[in-house]
Amino acid sequence: MAQRRIKIQFNDSEGVKYTVSLDGNTSKEKILKIINLLDIIEGDKAKDETTLTTFSKETSIGKIYGLIENKFSLGYFTSNHLLEAYEDEFNIPIKLSTISTYLSRLEQKQLLSRQRTSSGWTYKKVKVNSINV
């Protein structure tokens, strides 16, 4: 991975200014960890805790939402992408119709946004508070 310098600055709701710098070999995972930390500072932690109590990690929808948070938190994905990730992660087969049903329910709960494309639907995890990066 190429050497990069990434600088993130933002102000929280109380006007406190934060600056985070990453120098060196940065990966997507490291950047996601920083963004998660920023979400906690901004108050998204309460939303995340509500979600975790709503969806037990032992249930299919909990596993699916956990995968979305871990693997697809920044970009768009399809039900097929999620199906492959689910089967790779848990080594359990799941029907595409089951994935689609849970994605629809998550979209109805406003945890995902859904966009129509020429080949079907794409989904994206919804952020409660936007952070200017």
How would you summarize the topology of this molecule?
Elements: E1 3-11, E2 17-25, H1 28-42, H2 44-54, H3 60-71, H4 79-90, H5 96-108, E3 112-117, E4 120-125
Antiparallel strand pairs: 1-2, 3-4
Helix pairs in contact: 3-4, 4-5
Quaternary structure of the protein: single chain
Secondary-structure element order, as H and E?
EEHHHHHEE
Please give the CATH architecture of the largest domain.
Orthogonal Bundle
CATH class of the largest domain: Mainly Alpha
Find the count of extended strands (DSSP E, 2+ residues): 4
- What would you give as the CATH superfamily of the largest domain? Winged helix-like DNA-binding domain superfamily/Winged helix DNA-binding domain
Low-confidence stretches: 44-53, 129-133
CATH topology of the largest domain: Arc Repressor Mutant, subunit A
Number of helices: 5
SS-derived structural category: alpha+beta
Measured between the Cα atoms of the first and last residue, the distance is 21 Å
Q: Strand count, sense and closure of the main sheet? A: 2 strands, antiparallel
Tally of domains: 2
| Mean pLDDT over all positions | 78
Kindly provide the radius of gyration, computed on alpha-carbon positions and rounded to a whole number of angstroms.
16 Å
Strand order of the largest sheet: 1-2
Outline, from the CA principal axes?
Answer: elongated
As a percent range, the share of helical residues equals 40-55%
Percent in strands: 15-25%
